[in-house]
Amino acid sequence: MADPIDRATATEIVERLRVFAQPQRLAILTALLQGEQSVAAIDAATGIGQPALSQQLGELRRAELVAQRRDAKSVVYRLIDERTAAVVRIVVAAFGSNDPLEAGIRREDAPARRAHVGSAAMFAVVDRS
User: Fold this and answer.
1) Coil, helix or strand for 76?
2) Is the whole-model pTM more than 0.85?
3) Domain 7-79 has what CATH class?
4) Which intervals hold domain HTH arsR-type (predicted)?
5) How far does the chain reach from its first CA to its final CA, in angstroms?
6) Measuring CA to CA, which residue among 59, 60, 34 is closest to residue 45?
């Protein structure tokens, strides 16, 4: 069993998790699990709308969860790293999705994971293909 973390570390982790705990930002992050997306593609996938989408993408950039690049006239976003993708998958798998494919979990791993839903810890399998 892991040792309890100190209050400062717990506060730091909770502040980081708050970025994920906003519906529009979580929707954007899940859309980016599919790979790089233009702002128009993210808008089409999430239905957030341009003003709110720009604001939330800015928050995600400041939190260093997404990166952007220019592609001709459009801006393309991606998740900053696999660690961020793993956190998004775990959050969706733990709290939101009954379909493991939606959370980026391989179907063949889903029955074993579902068998432990009531346990103290939940883990997602990250498909790196």
Assistant:
1) strand
2) no
3) mainly alpha
4) 5-99
5) 32
6) 34
